[in-house]
């Protein structure tokens, strides 16, 4: 018998049951092998008197004994598995678990025997507390650990953070990768972007579902995952970990796992914010609720602010708060009201400020709300409102009958203070960027070109962050026709994108994404110079090279064929890059 055979009989000897080794021993030391086999069969067969006379019938039909015993065994195993699951639900709690513990004690020595293993695993699965000694044996054996149910693994994990970390780590990596793939997706659209999926849809994602299952109702494991997320957020500053923090809590909320939801102090706040994210707007009723939670943080419990700030730092939360802020500012213009007179607006700023301050708060462990700079409210927001007013007055001017003085030009200068705010104040920068996304979405080319120069230098390079560039490239598709104008392209590419392309690989990628989508609209001469400028260097990553190759292929396809070129009347400068209508 090889090692495979040995595994088949693992543990039978300890129970006093004869196995293959015993039969081998008997046959080696006997004089009459057939008699010995018959005796072995009698002693170890199914001990049912009525069966003895029936077995010869099977022999007549040519059914091997192995097949018969195997089918009886399978049948009995199914019955036993059903019985174990039934015991786990019946009678008094102590009694049922006592029965299961006894059963485990008797059967555990057979845990490595493949045919019996499912029964042992099933018993362990139904025990809320598997004896420590057994857990250690399972943990020490890779194959057993792999085979046991998640209910048993949870019991192992809760006292082995490192092992649990090894299981969770690849999932977290996968999650971040999935987010980045969406941000860099080749499908650029204003309708389907990073923020399009509803919270409920996002929670159905593979990683969130797996983590939810791994945690079950175990508060200790939930806390461990939160600790991993905090640590990774601190180490990488990657805000997608904040999204996962909120999604995980809401996934447990969907399953009504009160054991965890009731002990997470952020539960009700996250639930309310989740509804706002779903609507992409913070309405007055929910604003009051959210304010109630923030005002309700008691002395001595300030640490909860660290968790709340992480929930508010989720890009989906920031997106909702920023969109709501822009909407409020527009309403205030119509109402002739100043920002400082709007409690709803002040609350949005308070939450934005808390979210944007998450990293600093968790890093410093100083749990108090960041102080809001008065100038943000008294100077910066009124300045944004004045831009809205500029648009209104310009539009009205356009409609008035023009007098001798000629058309009124669109204001082209930006206040110095605006540029300074975007460089020095994080909240101002975030709101300013969302205002620029807003005017781009409205196809307001004038306002876009006016404010674009302010984006070259922003607070912590926020204008070159993936989320902003993902949204901007999507919104720019609405201004597609403007790309035929040299002046527009120069402002956008030379004046903004190319200022960061060489030092920031992600910007290089976003520009290539945009050109892949809009190359047929770009002024030909501009396209040619962009193609040269954007050529990858030796240091460029694979993603940039791949995108550049895709773009080159597309442009090759658009070039007219040599035959067409020779037929065109010669000009001083041949321009082979000008697309002919046929090749569009």
From TrEMBL:
InterPro entries in alphabetical order: COBRA1
Secretion signal, residue range per the UniProt entry: none
GO biological process: negative regulation of transcription elongation by RNA polymerase II
Disordered: annotated segments: 558-584
GO CC, alphabetical: NELF complex
Pfam families from the UniProt entry: COBRA1
Identification of the protein by name: NELFB factor
Organism: Pygoscelis papua
GN (gene name): Nelfb
